[in-house]
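Appendix B, example 12.
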Amino acid sequence: MPDAVYVHDAFARIADRYVLTNHVLSFGMDIVWRKIVTARIRKWKPSRLLDVASGTGDLALEIQDQCPLCDVIASDFCADMLVHATQRGMAKTLVADALDLPFQEAEFDVVTVAFGLRNMADYPAALREMHRILKPGGRLLILDFSLPNGIMRVPYRWYLHNVLPHMAGLLTGQKDAYEYMGGSIEAFPSGKVMTDLLESCGYTKTTATPITFGVCTLYEGTR
């Protein structure tokens, strides 16, 4: 699993150009993926939501905009990233470690984590902590990269390891931060492996929904 110190340093270094780089590297699809997540959340009409590993606040801002009656909090362990979330209009931010969230049990209707669980030092510990702060019947949504199956798999892996780091290096000046990304996607549990992990951490009604030919996957679990 990832080294927390390295991950924190890497994100601090790329914070200033993180949003633009994500849009370029995903060809704008990251915007579409977050809208898919937010549309699902809007139907649930939650009163309180925590976006874990929120970074510069892309998903939290979308939810805040689309669910105006929901109390949305964006948390991240990298303060440099949250500075940008606040500057972009995020009303509530909190510097917090996902492995030790400063909340009481059963405080949230929904917990989200987009492209962040993959970077945490202990997936099960993070999932159990998110489970703890969910209300009974509350939902966890995880959006993260995965490896597509079929004919897309080989070209996607080639892009991931050969094109993406170079493009990101030009945009951010921090090529090594994105060389790490390819390996983290390869190692991240996906599909049934992830839903089994969710169930082992106490979640029920788990699902895994591939998006964009499986380039990313939306996972859901209920406390």
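The chain is about 50% helix and 20% strand. The two ends are 25 Å apart (CA to CA).
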